[in-house]
Design a protein that fits this description.
The chain is mainly alpha-helical and about 100 residues long. The protein has 3 helices and 2 strands, in the order ββααα. Strands 1-2 form a two-stranded antiparallel ribbon.
Length: about 100
């Protein structure tokens, strides 16, 4: 888990970003990780939840993007469920709006 200087939990994943890693995370749509750039001061990014596997600025952007794809799989399942709920909610509200405006 990540904590800020006051001990408040930032998020439940053990991921911290350097500036190049933040650019990659922003490119693949993980905006919340960009916020960690300003809150955490580390020299590497740990995407495997282990201390020995670290990606630093020495690796290419292609390699970093490939490694971030491991995380994307977890977000896709959540995103699919959330999008179904949002679609259903917006469809109901649009239908109600149509009937109330006639």
């Amino acid at each position: 888990m990540l904590y800020d200087k006051k001990g408040k939990m930032l998020m439940g994943e053990n991921i911290t970003l350097t500036e190049p890693a933040a650019r990659i995370a922003l490119f693949i749509g993980k905006f919340k990780y960009l916020l960690l750039l300003f809150k955490m001061h580390t020299n590497s990014v740990n995407i495997f939840h282990k201390r020995i596997n670290r990606i630093t600025i020495l690796l290419s952007a292609c390699c970093k993007t490939y490694c971030f794809a491991f995380q994307k799989r977890r977000f896709c399942t959540v995103k699919a469920a959330v999008l179904r709920c949002k679609t259903a909610a917006f469809a109901v509200s649009n239908r109600n709006y149509r009937f109330s405006s006639e």
